C-alpha cells in the first residue's frame, strides 16, 4: 500500500521555518517578515492530501472526471506544490491520465469540450510543476503555441479598441472574461515567458477594462459607474449583466479583484501604478477570509485560491484594512481553512454554485491556496 503521508522531513523543515518567520524578498523589492500557525498548516495539508489520495482519486488517476480534467490538474498540482514527486504513485497516475488529453493542436483538454482554455491553462501549470527533469518539455512547447493562439486579437477581427481585445474565454469562442484571462496570463508566465510577452501585454489591456476605475486604461461606459478599484467579470456584458450594468455598473467582487491584482503583477505593473494602487485600496476596504467579498459563500474556495496567489505574488506579508488594522494574511487564511476543514480531511462549500459542492474541487483549491502561504527566502 502506498504511503499516503507527506514526508516528515518536509513538514519539520516547513514548521521550523514558518514558526520563526522568514525574511522575504517581495515582488516590489521590500523585505517583510511573516509567520503563521505551523501546526494548523501541517495538519490541514496532511489531512487534505490524504483525503484526495484515499477518497478522491479514481482508479484511472482522475479526480471528478465527470466535469472534465480541470479538477484532476488542480489536485495533482496540489500534491506537487506540497512536495510530492512526479514519480509518487498518486501523482504519477494522475499525470498519466492527463497526458491522454493532449490534443494534436497542443491544447490539453477534453475533445470537443467547452472549457479548453481553462483546462489547458490549469494543466500547463500542473505539468510545469512536474517538469523539473524536463520530461514534459515537448508537451509544454506544443501547449505554448496553442495557448498563444487563444486570445481575441486582429485575427478574429478585434483591434485594440474592441472590449474583447487581449482577453480569452472558456473555449476560445463567445465572450472573453477575467477568470480565463487570469489563468491564461499565469500559464504563459508558468511556461517561462516574461511580463513583456506580447500576449500578456495584450491581456493587460483587457484586464484593465475589467477594473472599476475610470482611467486612460478603461474608457468603457462601465469604468466610472462604481469606480472603487475592484474588478468585475467582463467588460463584454452578457444578458444577465446588461440591466445591472445599465443601472449602476457591475459590482466588484473578491475572486475577480484578486485575479486582476495577480494578473497585473504578472504583467509587470509596479506598486505605484494607479491601477495597482486602486485595487489595493479596494483590498483594504474589503479584506476578508470568511467570505468572497461581493459574493458571500458563492465561489468561496476559488476566492481563496485567487486571494493566496495574488498576495503571494504581491510579496507583502500583511494587508492594512480601511480601519488601519494590519492583517497577516497567511495566518488568517491558514486559520480559516483549518476551521472549515471536515473531519475526513476534505473541504466543501455549502454553496454549490460553480461546482463547489464537489469536495475534490474545494479540497484541491484549498491545498493550492495553502501552498502559497509557504514563505520562501
Explain the layout of strands and helices.
Elements: H1 8-20, E1 22-25, E2 31-34, H2 38-56, H3 70-81, H4 89-99, H5 116-129, H6 137-148, H7 178-190, H8 198-208, H9 223-226, H10 239-248, H11 254-266, H12 274-286, H13 300-314, E3 318-320, E4 326-328, H14 329-340, H15 359-371
Antiparallel strand pairs: 1-2, 3-4
Helix pairs in contact: 1-2, 2-14, 2-15, 3-4, 3-5, 3-15, 5-7, 7-8, 7-11, 8-11, 11-12, 11-13, 13-15
The overall pLDDT, averaged over residues, is 89
Q: Outline the biggest β-sheet.
A: 2 strands, antiparallel
Binned, the helix content reads 40-55%
Instruction: List SSEs in N-to-C order.
Output: HEEHHHHHHHHHHHHEEHH
Major sheet: arrangement of strands: 1-2
Q: Rough shape? A: globular
Structural class call reads mainly alpha
Percent of sequence in beta strands:
under 5%
Q: First CA to last CA: what distance?
A: 36 Å
Low-confidence spans: 1-33
Count the DSSP helices.
15
Structure overview:
The chain has 377 residues and is mainly alpha-helical. Helices cover 49% and strands 4% of the residues. The chain has a domain at 24-56 and 150-371. It has 15 helices and four strands. The strands form two sheets. Strands 1-2 form a two-stranded antiparallel ribbon. α1 (8-20) packs antiparallel against α2, α2 (38-56) packs across α14 (329-340) and α11 runs parallel beside α13 (300-314). It starts with 7 loop residues before the first helix and ends in a 6-residue tail after the last helix.
